[in-house]
Design goal:
With 1443 residues, this protein is α+β, with helices and mostly antiparallel strands. It has 32 helices and 59 strands.
Length: 1443
């Protein structure tokens, strides 16, 4: 319950005051009307005594009365009409609203901070008016008149006769059967004669003489001269007199006006007839809005009406408006204009005199008389007051419950019945604040009434006994709340009198609340809510809600729930403002707690009520909340919400058609997902022409790819600017999204579209239709070519000549759908563009079902949609929050966000625009396959472009040919089978090589260059506007099978330098699927064929070619057409295959082996020497494009890859120079190119494919492959061989030949590298015949040739002793021996060849291995000795025959 202005004792005292009737002559009324007041209104502000009053009780004890108030009313001879009471109470509540700017009471309960009205003045005004409107009843005397004032003006001709006339009139009203109303306390009513004198007009001495005559006739205690109107009607410049009447006066007050007629007040509105019920509560059930008052549905049920224009309560709005106007006019009516402050004091003195000398003595006398009558009738000794204790100290008779009693509410006592006399005495004692005596009388009367089963009388006695017990000073007994409960139940259920029950509830609730019994008070208030009066139920439910929130432990949810119920009943009662206030207060509890259905109901009702009250902004806000929250409503309910919202919004927009476009809540916009694309849409493929993929909004963002593109662009820009790295490099960004760097202003180009992709989401289960959807923008023109760069024009415009905009006519979003809208702008001038948001019409379609046979989910292609005719124009802003800053300490400790400028592009001047088309570009290739295709470059802008370059991470995949035309074949028809190579026909049947040379710089792989950046050989290096050129491009399938994404980045510039944009780029991603073709392995060995001249610089190259192609590719067979070598030092000389068939064919899974001889180039040149060994009829000139291009590019990629792998180990320090010399002996700089043709059957046609594979030979004896496998081969032999050699005892003895030095042993290279230090070969006859019969020993001369392969002097030891230590090895070597020295020591100079003559001795025939000499070598300036083991790998067999 809300806080009160007065205490509960004051409230109870003021609820029951002595009533005094007033009967005025017409002349007296005219005198008071000068002040715009009637007589009763005139004295009303002064009816409360300011001093204490004394009277004596029947025991002659002095009784003090404090703060006594009397009520003086005009005599009304008819009881007030029901409609009048209803109308008055309705108007009182309507007028009383919370004061604007009033500070609400903030209550903190748990997690809630609630702003609640501290007071409820509308309830107090209702309660006061209700108690004043209580009609007089026969079962109680509290509303009966105790006295009557007869008022006559002194200006009348015969005032005394007028007094007699008024006295007779009063007597007739009281005692005649013609008048049953009003009710009078006792037959002998006190009459008090008041002579009213108008000081400004009348003669004072005449008034005094009349007053003297009155005192003679009526006595000094029964009359009074009241002088008023001391001032004339014109106020002049006198001081401002206070107006104490305005707070008491109410329009159409029942007590001061003539009786109402039934006509204008019986029914105000058919929709609100429930406000006018019979006073006894027995009226028929009324109906509201076509529904019975009995709850057919839950009060929180949402309204499902589809017609949003039908708001209830419109009649009340008009009524309230007229009421406000009338109240406003009353407010400006001055009261008491002819009265001075002296007159105010006179009126106050008059009331005191009347009370002291007239009213209270009369009441005291009446109480004594009643007490004496009761004593005499009951036969009791002394007074009732003194016998009270005796009455109530004995045994009590058990009271029957109310339900056991008969319905005897119709029982009537005669006026002189002793039971009524007790009640009358009790009421008089109560009115003069003698509560103890009153309680005794009420208690006695209650028992009598219950014995007689007069339930209406008993209920009244119980009610007042409870109030009296509470008001007794010193609280001798607790408040008997059960008395009130019984009274309320009796009034409501037995007597069917809801007004009396309501009075009981209002009184008892105040008492319970004062005792902090909020729970009991709330239960009492809720108990009286019913369907017969919505206004009463609403007020009581609201007070119950306040009880819940004011409890010691506030019950917040109960408060909110009952506020909702109160708001619902207020709404039914036509009190729209109060209903809105209740719902708003309850919303504080339900908001944000996950009770979405309750929130929706409250917001919907707030929206409805606000719209009815023309608070359109509040209505829009409430409906907006329903739509933007994640609603759990059904689709039909959401559709109703949306229609309501659109209807309200339309009304708002019609009020201010020229105002700013309103913000719409639907659909949701995910601002951070907004993407901005600069440039034209990608062209679709036209036949064999495929446009560059570039960038489009259809591509998903990939951070790894984005980083790759950035690296490519940075690489080409660094190459163009001739520097390795750029400090302030910023990549070109065509598509901006949440992942891109949006800290800079993006650059757009004049006449090139800007596409903004906005992510819309429909949270509802009903479709939304957006029409005329376009971007909202602001543009500031600037001229970037002027001397003052960026000079701003003063015009900010939205004209179409500056920016052209594309609108989407219809954009349908199905239920709960996320959909992207792409909106375009076409800038026509340079300047600064700011994209602010989107503007559109929001509407919905009739249903989500099939429209005209086409499913609505198909999209915009289905044509026009059937709308429901309701749409509103509005906008949504695009506000993107930048990334959170986290660099400095300040940024880390606070929350700061950087800028996001993707929607604020700078429009620069015109730039060239390049489009690239790939003609007949393959999607599938064999590994190593060469394919020729064409690329078309087209300038689609109005500016010439130049400096076209292409950069790729896979330069080995493509080439545009060499730098000169000689190196590039002109057209594919120039050779047989339309080969992509440059070929010549060979007639020679030999397989000797044909040599040529080329420089790597001719193919873009020179020293210091970046092969990834390739110049596009445009004619004249310029592409004019509108021009196009086709260039050949050769492709080579990657060596690894699978799907390859190869990125091309085309770079180009404008001929004219721009301040904002230096270059432009175009991206293309080629997807190539490669399948396996050939696997090639090659090994190079030094030839043992040394002669005496020392011409031993030749090597053998073994090439294994395997067809690893799978049959799915359709390849019939592979032909090896040519093997070429490329080296600065070596060249292939001839093929030494024994097969006579030159054509090498490999069917599926077949393997071929080639043995080729390589010789050293005679002249050292900087250029690479190409040597071709042709196996077919055509020689492919390997030193020209595209063969050399792909070779150099793959060589560069291979070197780059191996360099990156080895860079990890370089930190271990440089190797020792000696070790490096040893390593160099085994190094070979020889590269093999295997060229092949594949015969493919496809669609019954035979196609010939060509290709090439590369093998890079680095070291002697080390196998190389064309492409490293995913899983390398593990070495079978580890370091154990080296350890065995060191542990051998004979070798330890050999080391003693050399003087030991105290030098540190350098890092040793692997064992196989030492075998290349000394090259040894044995010269001997393969077959030697000897006659063992003639001579038992066979001696064969053997020459040992030693060649120093290094660039340093080498010490060599030859050990001829057999190393064999087991019988098995003895058998292998055979039993022969070397004659002469067993060890030789010699020194070989750099590149020196030396021979050693040896003799081998055999004792019988057989096959012998002469490869037993062991050769040890060391560099002359080193200590460590190493064994060369090359001869052990190749046995030297000799056959000894017997003649």
């Amino acid at each position: 319950m809300a806080q009160r202005v007065q205490s509960v004792q004051e409230f109870l005292q003021d609820s029951f005051v002595p009533l005094v009737a007033a009967l005025c002559s017409e002349e007296a009324e005219r005198v008071t009307r000068k002040n715009n007041l009637g007589f009763c209104e005139l004295i009303k502000p002064f009816c409360r005594l300011t001093s204490e009053v004394h009277m004596r009780d029947p025991n002659n004890q002095l009784h003090i009365i404090k703060n006594l108030k009397i009520a003086v009313n005009n005599i009304i001879t008819q009881p007030p009409q029901q409609g009048a009471i209803r109308k008055l109470l309705h108007d009182v509540v309507t007028v009383s609203q919370p004061a604007e700017g009033l500070v609400a009471n903030v209550i903190t309960a748990g997690d809630y901070d609630l702003n609640i009205s501290a007071t409820t003045p509308w309830f107090e005004a209702y309660r006061e008016s209700f108690l004043q409107c209580m009609p007089a009843s026969d079962h109680e005397f509290l509303n009966h008149y105790v006295a009557c004032m007869l008022v006559v003006s002194s200006s009348e001709p015969e005032p005394v006769e007028q007094f007699l006339k008024l006295s007779q009139e009063q007597h007739q009203i009281q005692h005649s059967n013609e008048y049953s109303y009003p009710k009078w306390f006792i037959p002998n009513t006190l009459k008090y004669y008041v002579l009213l004198h108008d000081v400004s007009v009348g003669e004072e001495h005449r008034a005094d003489s009349i007053y003297e005559e009155m005192k003679q006739r009526y006595g000094t205690q029964g009359c009074y001269l009241l002088k008023i109107n001391s001032r004339g009607s014109n106020r002049g410049a006198d001081e401002q007199i206070p107006d104490p009447w305005s707070q008491y006066l109410q329009k159409n007050s029942i007590q001061t006006q003539e009786p109402y007629e039934d006509g204008p007040y019986t029914i105000i509105s058919n929709k609100n007839s429930d406000h006018f019920i019979p006073l006894d509560g027995l009226g028929n059930d009324s109906k509201v809005d076509g529904l019975s008052n009995n709850y057919k549905s839950h009060p929180l049920q949402l309204d499902h009406t589809s017609d949003s224009s039908c708001f209830d309560g419109t009649d009340y709005v008009k009524a309230n408006a007229s009421l406000h106007e009338s109240k406003k006019s009353n407010t400006w009516t001055p009261h008491g204009t002819c009265l001075t402050l002296t007159d105010h004091d006179r009126i106050r003195q008059f009331i005191q005199e009347f009370t002291f000398r007239g009213l209270l003595p009369h009441i005291e006398k009446t109480i004594r008389q009643l007490n004496d009558q009761l004593i005499s009738r009951k036969g009791l000794s002394r007074s009732l007051f003194s016998a009270t204790k005796k009455w109530f100290s004995g045994s009590k008779i058990p009271e029957k419950s109310v339900n056991e009693l008969k319905s005897t509410s119709g029982l009537l006592y005669p006026p002189e019945a002793p039971e009524l006399q007790i009640r009358k005495m009790a009421d008089l004692c109560f009115l003069v604040q003698h509560y103890e005596l009153a309680y005794s009388c009420y208690h006695t009367a209650k028992k009598d009434f219950l014995n007689d089963q007069a339930m209406l009388y008993a209920a009244g006695a119980l009610e007042m006994a409870a109030v009296s017990a509470f008001l007794q000073p010193g609280a001798p007994r607790p408040y008997p709340a059960h008395y009130m409960d019984t009274a309320i139940q009796t009034y409501r259920d037995i007597c069917k009198n809801m007004m009396l029950a309501e009075r009981c509830v209002l009184l008892s609730a105040e008492i319970l609340k004062s005792q902090s019994k909020y729970s009991e008070a709330a239960a009492l208030l809720i108990r009286l809510t019913s369907e017969d009066s919505d206004l009463r139920s609403a007020l009581l439910l609201e007070q119950a809600a306040h009880c819940f929130i004011n409890m010691k432990s506030p019950m917040v949810r109960k408060f909110a729930f009952h506020m909702i119920l109160a708001g619902h009943r207020y709404s039914k009662a036509g009190q729209k403002k109060h209903a809105l206030r209740c719902y708003c207060q309850a919303m504080q509890v339900y908001k944000g707690k996950g009770w979405s259905l309750a929130e929706d109901h409250i917001n919907f009702t707030i929206g409805r009520q606000s719209f009815t009250l023309r608070q359109l902004d509040n209505a829009v806000s409430a409906f907006r909340h329903i739509l933007i929250n994640e609603s759990k409503q059904t689709a039909a309910q959401q559709g109703a919400f949306l229609r309501e919202y659109l209807y309200v919004y339309k009304n708002v927009s019609q009020l201010s058609p020229d105002g700013p476009s309103p913000q719409l809540p639907l659909p949701y916009i995910n601002s951070s997902a907004t993407r901005v694309f600069f440039g034209h849409d990608r062209r679709p493929a036209e036949g064999e022409k495929q446009a560059a993929t570039h960038i489009s909004l259809d591509q998903e963002y990939d951070s790894e790819f984005s980083h790759q593109w950035k690296e490519l662009e940075e690489q080409v820009v660094a190459t163009v600017n001739k520097c390795t790295a750029l400090s302030n490099f910023q990549p070109t960004q065509y598509c901006l999204n949440r992942y891109s760097d949006n800290s800079r202003f993006p650059l757009g180009v004049v006449e090139e579209p800007i596409t903004v992709e906005v992510a819309f989401r429909n949270p509802l289960k009903v479709p939304l239709l957006l029409t005329d959807l376009s971007l909202l923008w602001k543009f500031q023109p600037k001229d970037y070519n002027s001397k003052n760069n960026g000079e701003t024009k003063e015009v900010e415009t939205c004209g179409k000549d500056m920016i052209g905009a594309e609108a989407i006519s219809e954009f349908l979003m199905n239920s709960e759908e996320t959909k992207m809208a792409r909106l375009k702008l076409f800038p026509h001038q340079t300047g600064e563009l700011h994209i602010l948001g989107v503007v559109y019409n929001l509407g919905t379609i009739q249903s989500t079902s099939v429209l005209d046979g086409v499913d609505s989910s198909v999209g915009l292609q289905t044509g026009k949609y059937i709308t429901n005719g309701m749409s509103v124009r509005g906008q949504q802003d695009l506000e993107i929050q930048g990334p959170r800053l986290n660099n400095t300490k300040e940024e880390k400790t606070s929350i700061k966000y950087g800028p996001d400028r993707r929607l604020d592009p700078i429009i620069t001047e015109e730039m060239p625009l390049l489009e690239v088309f790939f003609i007949n570009f393959p999607t599938g290739l064999l590994c190593g396959e060469i394919r020729k295709t064409y690329v078309e470059f087209m300038n689609v802008s109005k500016c010439p472009l130049t400096g076209v370059k292409v950069v790729s991470k896979r330069p080995e995949f493509f080439t545009f040919g060499g730098s000169s035309a000689i190196l590039t074949p002109l057209s594919p028809s120039a050779s047989e089978h339309c080969s992509a190579y440059k070929t010549i026909v060979t007639h020679s049947t030999s397989v000797c090589s044909l040599t040529s040379s080329a420089d790597s710089s001719d193919f873009g792989v020179g020293t210091g260059s970046q092969p990834e950046v390739i110049d596009v050989p445009l004619p004249d290096s310029v592409l004019l506007p509108g021009a196009s050129v086709q260039l050949p491009m050769w492709l080579r399938g990657p060596d690894e099978e699978g799907v390859h994404e190869i990125n091309f980045l085309f770079y180009y510039e404008s001929i004219r330098k721009h301040s904002k944009m230096c270059h432009r780029i175009l991206r293309h991603t080629a997807v190539i699927c490669t399948s396996r073709s050939l696997a090639i392995r090659a090994t190079v060995y030094r030839s043992n064929a040394l002669d005496e001249k020392g011409d031993g610089d030749n090597m053998l190259v073994f090439v294994d070619v395997e067809n690893v192609n799978t049959s799915e590719a359709g390849v019939k067979e592979f032909h090896i057409v040519q093997v070429s070598s490329n080296s600065k030092n070596w060249k292939l000389q001839e093929s030494i295959n024994l097969s006579e068939d030159k054509d090498i064919k490999l069917a599926n899974r077949e393997k071929g082996k080639l043995c080729l001889k390589a010789v050293k180039c005679k002249h050292l040149v900087e250029n690479y020497t190409f040597a071709d060994i042709v196996f077919g009829s055509e020689q492919i000139i390997s030193s020209t494009s595209p063969c050399a291009d792909f070779f150099f590019r793959s060589l560069y990629s291979d070197l780059k890859r191996t360099h990156s792998q080895q860079s990890v180990h370089t930190s271990q320090g440089a190797l020792d120079s000696a070790v490096r010399l040893i390593q160099k002996c085994g190094e070979v700089d020889l590269n093999i190119i295997v060229l092949w043709k594949a015969y493919v059957v496809e669609d019954n046609k035979q196609l010939i494919l060509e290709g090439q594979h590369h093998v890079v030979l680095h070291a002697v004896g080390k196998e190389a492959v064309s492409f490293p496998q995913k899983q390398g081969f593990k070495k079978i032999l580890g370091n154990s061989d080296w350890e065995d050699l060191e542990q051998e005892s004979p070798e330890i003895g050999l080391f003693n030949f050399f003087r030991p030095e105290s030098t540190s042993v350098p890092a040793r290279p692997p064992l196989d590298q030492f075998s290349n230090l000394i090259k040894a070969s044995l010269r001997y006859p393969e077959i030697f015949s000897h006659s063992f019969h003639q001579k038992s020993l066979c001696i064969v001369p053997v020459t040992l040739l030693l060649s120093n392969c290094s660039q340093a002097d080498v010490d060599v030891i030859i050990d001829l002793r057999h190393k064999a230590t087991s019988p098995e090895t003895l058998e292998i070597h055979g039993s022969f021996t070397w004659l002469g020295q067993t060890q030789y020591k010699l020194q070989l100079k750099s590149q020196e060849v030396s021979s050693l003559q040896l003799k081998a001795c055999f004792v019988h025939t057989g096959v012998y291995n002469l490869g037993t000499p062991r050769v040890f070598a060391k560099l002359s300036d080193q200590v460590t000795l190493f064994e060369t083991s090359q001869q052990n790998s190749m046995p030297a067999l000799i056959i000894i025959n017997n003649i």
